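Work Package 4 report. The design task specified in the project plan requires that, given a folded chain encoded as structure tokens, an amino acid be chosen for each position. We show below one input record used in the internal validation round.
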């Protein structure tokens, strides 16, 4: 397969995380005989050039670029995959009986007045993902936001696809309460920007591993993949300690977007292997930790098959990305 991928030039910790992402993409290309044409672009040229850029996906890692994209928008939707990993269960502030099994996919539609075509696009994507997950979609409804009440009519237009999926609507406050009491009961969610962002931050806090959360932002035809929580331009002494896993898992989302599901699976399997063996960054373990570069090397080496052993299926947190 041939794909054009742009990576936005960034400095500091974000730049180091980007290097690990490149290692992983190259390892996948070598193992599966793909050609990924990777080019570096500035954030100023990435946004205006989208319609004619010829890029199939754009990668980023810094908070500054995330804010630039959001300001240049409008964004159609932001999607985050949030998981509590069994080896890191102890990092959750909730007791295990509440946080265990949390594995959700959250769609935040960013434009309240988006047209029916945009909403159908989100609905079809959510249905596609729900079918491959636990066949359940929850729509958060704010009583004062008229756009939230349009979703039943939208899903009626996807009746054929929705037959396999249970679709429920719940008030915003109930969703927030449920997130703190039974978060594992959620699977695929759709929410407005402000209420959805608050729900997402609750979920991210529950995981205790916010830099391991991947995301995709969709503004037009070309999606932006990167960690849900970006990196600032850090001081020299703080560099090489940033957790690259969220950015690396965003490449798994990108592979799913390309319909390269086996390639996405091997990336997630490699990440699980590092967690099971204690190869974690400083934000996970302030005492026994590994550098940004080491984690990137281990994951890419696992993909290449140069590390013995393979994570067992029951230990793998399988998460398909949205395909917008």
């Amino acid at each position: 397969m041939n794909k054009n991928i742009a990576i936005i030039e960034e400095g500091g910790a974000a730049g180091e995380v980007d290097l690990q992402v490149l290692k992983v993409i190259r390892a996948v290309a070598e193992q599966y005989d793909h050609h990924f044409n990777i080019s570096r672009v500035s954030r100023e040229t990435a946004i205006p050039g989208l319609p004619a850029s010829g890029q199939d996906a754009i990668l980023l890692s810094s908070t500054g670029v995330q804010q630039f994209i959001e300001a240049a928008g409008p964004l159609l939707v932001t999607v985050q995959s949030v998981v509590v990993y069994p080896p890191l269960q102890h990092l959750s502030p909730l007791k295990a009986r509440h946080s265990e099994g949390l594995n959700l996919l959250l769609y935040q539609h960013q434009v309240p007045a988006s047209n029916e075509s945009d909403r159908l696009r989100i609905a079809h994507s959510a249905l596609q993902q729900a079918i491959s997950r636990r066949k359940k979609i929850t729509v958060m409804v704010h009583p004062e936001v008229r756009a939230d009440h349009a979703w039943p009519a939208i899903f009626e237009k996807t009746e054929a696809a929705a037959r396999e999926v249970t679709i429920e609507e719940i008030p915003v406050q109930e969703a927030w309460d449920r997130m703190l009491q039974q978060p594992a009961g959620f699977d695929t969610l759709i929410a407005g920007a402000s209420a959805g962002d608050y729900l997402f931050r609750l979920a991210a806090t529950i995981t205790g591993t916010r830099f391991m959360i991947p995301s995709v932002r969709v503004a037009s035809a070309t999606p932006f993949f990167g960690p849900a929580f970006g990196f600032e331009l850090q001081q020299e002494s703080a560099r090489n300690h940033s957790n690259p896993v969220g950015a690396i898992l965003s490449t798994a989302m990108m592979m799913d977007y390309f319909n390269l599901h086996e390639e996405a699976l091997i990336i997630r399997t490699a990440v699980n292997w590092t967690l099971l063996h204690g190869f974690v960054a400083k934000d996970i373990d302030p005492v026994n930790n590994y550098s940004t570069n080491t984690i990137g090397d281990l994951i890419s080496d696992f993909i290449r098959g140069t590390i013995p052993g393979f994570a067992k299926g029951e230990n793998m947190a399988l998460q398909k990305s949205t395909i917008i």
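The radius of gyration is 19 Å. Validation will be extended to a larger panel in the next phase.
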